[in-house]
Design a protein that fits this description.
InterPro entries: AAA+_ATPase, ABC_transporter-like_ATP-bd, P-loop_NTPase. This protein is α/β, with parallel strands linked by helices. It has helices spanning about 40-50, 70-75, 90-100, 105-120, 135-150, 165-185, 195-200, 220-225, 230-245; strands at about 1-10, 15-25, 30-35, 55-60, 65, 75-80, 155-160, 185-190, 205-210, 210-215. The protein has one domain (about 1-245): Rossmann fold (3-Layer(aba) Sandwich), CATH 3.40.50.300. The protein has nine helices and ten strands. The strands form two sheets. Strands 6-7-8-3-9-10 form a six-stranded mixed beta sheet, with helices on both faces. Strands 2-1-4-5 form a four-stranded antiparallel beta sheet, with helices on one face. The longest helix has 18 residues, at about 165-185. The protein is globular. Bound molecules: adenosine-5'-diphosphate and magnesium ion.
Length: about 250
């Protein structure tokens, strides 16, 4: 569904993506994980075309991203950023329907889609009438997800969608998100810095370090056959954290 080939993106002297090659299989969930600043968000922004690579190619759905086709291809991707990225001065409904209105969907089509999405993300309809600052953190993320899913894109990109939530709401939304991914059969790329979340969601995990792929594969592979000391230490550090909490 998404293929990056030798993708490099620098910011000044910083190599945020350093010759990354990566395949995101269709209908599966791929999780990008790694320490802060390792380039997770940069890879998502490259895939959705908000930033363009210095070199290398990005293919989405068989089409190579170019300046000419960016806008069209973007309609085939839903994007949820941390904190939701919703416009605070519009209602939640206004946020969700923005793009569909821009594309001149009919009122009936918009209404039907909203109804289906409310059911899917388990949000009470009246929550759509208020601006996002009046929603709880969990509700805001549900609205962000509705917005991302509005055009029914085959590809869903989520940047730490649960990062800002407190633990109980986080657990709730985690369960709902996985159900949604499975029900819809979307191709999902999800960013987290939490290994347990990565294992929970990911058919495939991509561990990044300093803009490079340290290892990619199912969680079990990273745990049982780490490709380097870095991978072993990253997995152990996060595991010993929960072991310490368990005792
Ligand atoms: P992550 O999401 O894994 O925390 P990012 O992809 O946001 O990491 O950033 C990777 C590196 O690139 C960091 O060192 C960050 O400071 C740098 N970077 C990202 N975006 C920009 C930008 N727009 N301008 C300058 N530096 C950036
Ligand atoms: Mg980030």
């Amino acid at each position: 569904m998404v293929t990056l080939t030798d993708v490099t993106k620098t910011f000044g002297a910083e190599r945020a993506a350093d010759n990354v090659s990566l395949h995101v299989p269709e209908g599966q969930t791929t999780v990008l994980i790694g320490p802060s600043g390792c380039g997770k968000s940069t890879l998502l922004r490259l895939i959705i075309g908000l930033i363009r690579p210095d070199s290398g190619t990005i293919r989405v759905d068989g089409t190579t991203l170019s300046d000419a086709n960016l806008r069209t291809l973007r309609h085939r991707m839903g994007y949820v950023i941390q904190e939701g990225g919703l416009f605070p001065h519009r209602t939640a409904r206004g946020n969700v329907t923005l793009l569909a209105k821009h594309l001149r969907w009919s009122t009936t089509r918009i209404r039907d889609r909203i109804e289906a999405l409310l059911e899917l993300v388990q949000l009470p309809a009246d929550r759509l009438d208020v601006p996002p600052p009046q929603l709880s953190g969990g509700q805001r993320q549900r609205v962000s997800l509705m917005r991302a899913l509005m055009l029914d894109p085959p590809l869903l990109l989520l940047d730490e969608p649960l990062g800002a939530l407190d633990p109980l709401i986080r657990a709730d939304l985690q369960t709902d998100l996985r159900r949604i991914f499975r029900t819809l059969g979307k191709t999902v790329v999800l960013v987290t810095h939490d290994l347990h979340e990565a294992a929970y969601f990911g058919d495939q995990i991509v561990l990044l370090r300093s803009g490079q792929v340290a290892q990619q594969g199912p969680f079990r592979e990273l745990r049982d056959a780490p490709a380097s000391d870095f991978v072993r230490e990253f997995v152990q550090a996060q595991q010993s954290l929960t072991t310490a909490l368990d005792t």
